[in-house]
Amino acid sequence: MNKKTSIVILAAGKGKRMNNPDYPKVLAEINEKPLIYYVLSQINNLSIDKIVVVVGHKSELVIDYINNSEFKNIEFAFQNEQLGTGHAVMQAQYNFQNYDGEILILAGDVPLLKAETLRKFINLHNEVNSDVSVLSTIAPNPSGYGRIVRDCDNIFLKIVEHKDASEEIKKIDEINSGIFLVDSTLLFDSLKQIKNDNSQAEYYLTDIVEVLKLQGKKVYALNVAPFSELQGINTIEELKNASYMFNYAQILK
Questions:
Q1: Are the CB atoms for 236 and 244 separated by under 8 Å?
Q2: Which long-range contacts (CB under 8 A, 24 or more apart) does 183-189 make?
Q3: Is 17 a catalytic residue?
Q4: Tens digits of per-residue pLDDT, 98-139?
Q5: 17, 119, 147, 150: which one is catalytic?
Q6: Domains of the chain: residue spans and CATH
Q7: Rounded to an integer, what distance in angstroms lies between the CA atom of residue 170 and that of residue 188?
């Protein structure tokens, strides 16, 4: 990593489909440790300038866990209304006043993500001199995920969320992992330009790709990891699968 890099972790969501809507999703557990523990463990192995966790639903529970954990020097930002991923990241702007560097955006519910994958992603982003990069992957079943849309020359154009996708776009199997790397100034300037005129009336972080592309910035979707490593946890079944995969990986070590 040859540029100063900080991290924003999105951890404001509810566990609506986890049979526990009153509990923060990132505190659902694998092997008696919350999902966010695994994310923080991996980024602990990177050279990072600052870590900001965006909390929302039952924020005091997430903050209490982190403050009493082995992870130190974590800052917090607050998303009091659930208005989308773009809105969530925007809440961290105050934490990055006068900051000159890049921001890596992660979800707090991706427990199988590896530090070496993030290193590879960051290094490739720098090699191609990208302004904004999205970590993509090929999904065996892309339903529910935002699709990576490319032109006939394989040039990355935009991300279309599943609920807003046409039938043709839904056939695409390259998906957005939710992991972004972008210059801090470009990030917050572009977030101010996105709108919520979509099926969910939310401010999508993914829309910064089109905003920056229209400004002539370099945008890349970088496919450098398997789907199994990038899968988020949204249901009890996905939590069980992630637990199985984690334990299987531990056996193979």
A1: no
A2: 183/101, 183/102, 183/103, 183/131, 183/132, 184/6, 184/96, 184/99, 184/100, 184/101, 184/102, 184/103, 185/100, 186/131, 186/132, 186/212, 186/217, 187/89, 187/103, 187/132, 188/90, 188/93, 188/96
A3: yes
A4: 999 999 999 999 999 999 999 999 999 999 999 999 999 999
A5: 17
A6: 5-252 (3.90.550.10)
A7: 29
